[in-house]
Amino acid sequence: MLVRGAPGTGKTMFALSLLANYPGRRLFVSTRVPPGELRREFPWLGRSDLRIEAIDAADGFAGVHRQAEMLARARELILQPEGSSDLRPLWLPEPIQEAWSRSDPGSRTMVVLDSWDALIERYLGSGFLASPGAAVPDRPELERILLTQMARAPVFLALVAERDEPSQLDYLVNGVVHTRWERMNGRPERWIWLRKLRGTRIDTPEYPFTLDGGRFACISPLPIDFRAPLVPPVPEPDARPGQIWPGTPEFANAFGRLPLHRVSLIEREAIVPSEAIRLVIGPMMAHILQSGGRLVHVLPPDSNADDVWRGYRELIGIEQFRRQVRIQAITSDSSEEVQSVVLPPPRPSGGPTEPHLKEAIQFLREAPADAPNLMVVWVDGLVALAELQEFEYTPQGLPAVAVRVATGAPIHLLFIGVDGDRLTREVRALSSIHLRFLGRNGRVFIEGDKPLTPPFVLALGEHPGPYHLVRVV
Asked: How much is the mean pLDDT over the chain?
């Protein structure tokens, strides 16, 4: 396998991850990390079960011209097809010959050469001048000798290279992967591209990855058909007055808790599935319900009360649902079972800054004392409700409405809007928490503008909680 990428893009960490997971003998030939520092730089390699053998290729080995001088007396044997097969590997640099000598022909071995470019360029660039009659192989020939030699035994070879231009290695090796580091929205992202895996179908060629904690971790895409059922929240570790627990330490550690009488904004690209939003806000809503608080939904136009109940029924009973939940939707059509939670259509108010959803606000004001309360507003649903009464929310009026709603009851107000929407933009300034949900290559990236955070990638459930935020560093 050829592992290619610019310096600092994570090639070494990827190669070490391959090495750590290989079910056989493991050899690491390094031109930059002496064996004594390897485990200090990568502490996880110190696990007793890994048994990675390090070979120092940083300095101190002969160049190709000195090698030619030593082999000059056997020149005819080396160049003749007959008898040359056993001597040609002697052209390889000493660290590679040492790695070869440590491999066992009867068992599997993996050898990582990090980096091949540095090793071979140092080897070929030696200033020692061989005698005129000493023929010296060039780099392509040395690469062919290397791969031929390793193929004689069950050896898996990973070549780490900084050169970005294609070479004969791209055709000779079985696999080519490319790592890259790029900046998106001012934040770093790491991606690995599977360019070639001979004999293997590549359904997903690009994966984001992270080096968080000094380990390489690849991030798989969310399943196309995944759903976000409401599940019990992670218990609150410590109650904090005036703040609502978001239902999982993943959110709390990354973005904080939800302050009462304040507004948050989730701004999503249109390609981000709604289920990704529900996956993140689900633990918040579950915490509200289990804590005896009240919850108001202003649904998007394509949802109704029965959709909400189907997501809740595994967590709470119908009576608790009726007591603690109210729903505002553009359609009042719903089953008789949940009809009582559907609020009447909003009525015109005294002005553009007056809240229209008076029943919803009254419901929240009457919540039990000290219980957390949450109002979740999908902006497109709010706009659709306004159109029912021939009213329009404006960029000037919506922020004032949001402030009056948030301060008029002991709640946290959470807006969910589409990136670039004119109403969504106006909510940014008054938000205590502002998150962006971005869609790339089947993944959902979450970036915090308030607070300012590195990018996270949304992944499905790792205990505890229904989702995991993978920090990209």
From this structure: 86
Q: How far is it, in rounded angstroms, from Cα 163 to Cα 60?
A: 24
Q: Give the architecture (CATH level 2) of 2-218.
A: 3-Layer(aba) Sandwich (3.40)
pTM: 0.83
The contacts of residue 25 (CB under 8 Å, 6+ apart) are 53, 102, 103, 104, 107, 108, 109, 110
Check if the beta carbon of residue 49 is closer than 8 Å to that of residue 42: no
Domain segments of the chain: what residues?
Answer: 2-218, 243-471
Residue 177 near residue 194 (C-beta atoms within 8 A): yes
DSSP result, 278-327: HHHHHHHHHHHHHTT--EEEE--TT--HHHHHHHHTTTS-HHHHHHHEEE
Count of Cβ atoms closer than 10 Å to residue 134 Cβ: 18
- For 403-416, give one letter per residue: b (16+ CB within 10 A) or e: bebbeebbbbbbbb
User: Pairing state of beta strands 187-197 and 206-210?
Assistant: antiparallel
Give the CATH architecture of domain 243-471: 3-Layer(aba) Sandwich (3.40)
Same fold? 2-218, 243-471: yes
| Residue 434 Cα to chain centre, angstroms | 19
β partners of residue 71: none
pLDDT bracket for residue 83 (50, 70, 90): very low
